[in-house]
Design goal:
By secondary structure, the protein is of the alpha+beta class. The chain is 29% helix and 25% strand.
Amino acid sequence: MPLVHVHPMSLAFEIFEELAHALTHEPKIAASRNTPEHLHDLYDRQLAVVLMEGGAPIGFIAAWPVEEGYYEIGSVWVHLGYRGRGYSHTIYEAMVELLALNGHLAFQITTNPLAVRSGQKVGLMVHEDWSTPVPRHLTCGPCEFVAAAQRDTCPHRNTTCWLQVLRHA
C-alpha cells in the first residue's frame, strides 16, 4: 500500500527530481513551475503531498501561493501505472487536511468534472460567484477558452470551468 508523505517526513531531493521529470510529461500540468527546487520548497512549506510506493513517487499534489493569503490547488498527478485505484482521492484528502490544519484559504479551478467530484468528496465546495471569497483576478487568469476582454462575462464559468474553495475558508 502506498504511503502518503507530508512535511516533516524527510524525502530525498532526488524524489523531487523524479516528480519534476514525470510532471513535465503530463499535457494538462503547467510544467514551467515544476522544477525540483520549487516542488521541494512547496513540500518543506507544507504545501505539497507526495504519495510513495517502494521508494518512488507515484502521486503528487501541491497548493501554489498565488497572492498573499491565497493558495491554488494544482492538478493531482498519479503515475500512469497506478491510476484507477483511488489514489487521487487519497492525495486530495491529505492535501485538504494539510491546508485546513494550516488555515490556508485555498481554491482550485478545473475543467475536469472528475476533479470537481473528487474535490467535493474531500471538502471543496463549488462556488458560482467567481469574485468571492477569492478575488476575480486570481480565478480568471490565463485562459484557453476566452480572451482577457471577455473574462467578466465568460460563458464557460460553471459549465466548462469550475471554481472550488475549501469549505472552512
